[in-house]
Design a protein that fits this description.
This protein is of the alpha+beta class. It has 8 helices and 17 strands. It folds into 2 domains: about 240 residues, 3-Layer(aba) Sandwich (Aminopeptidase); about 90 residues, Peptidase M42, domain 2 (Elongation Factor Tu (Ef-tu), domain 3, Beta Barrel), CATH 2.40.30.40. Helix 1 packs antiparallel against helix 4, helix 4 crosses helix 8 and helix 6 crosses helix 8.
Amino acid sequence: MDDDRRAFLTDLLTTPSPSGFEAVGQRVWLEYVRQFADDVWTDAYGNAVAVHQGGSDVSIAFTGHADEIGFMVRDITEDGFLRISPIGGADRTVSKGQHVTVHAEPPVAGVIGQTAIHLRDRDEERYDDIEAQFVDIGVGDDDEARELVEVGDPVTVETRVRPLHGTRLAARGMDNRVGIWSAAEGLRAAAEAEVEATVYAVSTVQEEVGVQGAKMIGFELDPDAAIAVDVTHATDNPDIPGKRSGPVELGAGPVVSRGSANHPSLVSLARDAASSADVDVQLQATGTRTGTDADAFYTARSGIPALNLGIPNRYMHTPVEVIDTDDLSAAADLLGAVAAQAVDAAPFGLEL
């Protein structure tokens, strides 16, 4: 991954973007894609779209979701502590003892309190629900707290982007900055190759709270096909339960999902494009649902052929998600190859 693309990824990962509050992160994404898109726009809720206008009527969308999990200020106690509620699937087992930022105007630093090990009853160890946890911003009472924050302010864990050995990278919010990075770079590849298809790159909002943005943008764009790029569970670390273990490994390439939302024509297109571009891919079974924006796209309007392309990710929904940047580069190459073959592969409906 070259310096320009790596800087873009870092900018995305260091810009907080909790569900419902994605505007700042969307601005970062839009500024980048304007360099090679024919046009960019946003909708009422902040879904962001960039397009390469091809000469064909065939259109395909590469999408990722801009939002991340987090918390929200629910109440302020008389002592000035902030009671919180989750945004999306926040993990109560890793939230205590974390530095956080309350995204007020201006932002306020805080920590999620954890009773010291010396003072806890070791025979009754348990994980409190998020609603029972609290943020300490260092004030003395509720009046002082209310001068700084308001109920409804979003809260994110404060972490850093940290390179690990080789091409591995750790950060909060890989889910799903890697998806919108891939969608942007897929569009760049399509534009540089001047492919015949019209190619959209889409950065959706509010995936973590019910794939809401994809429902909106799928209806608006109505593309011939959509590929939703999102993280998927790497199952190559030691603590994966046996019944959930599978073939997905970091560094072995992007993951083509099969089943449920994943249209067979797009599965074939992705695998053929991977072969032509010399990109290694992995396969994953998603027999019921993908849990990604693909689930919204494939039921939009009268049905948009969709595919979930996964980026292997360890420790999902924690502050230390780990990916391999080689998988990201491969995903961008694959999307570029898909765009180049889209016109020949269309139409994407089933032949019965």
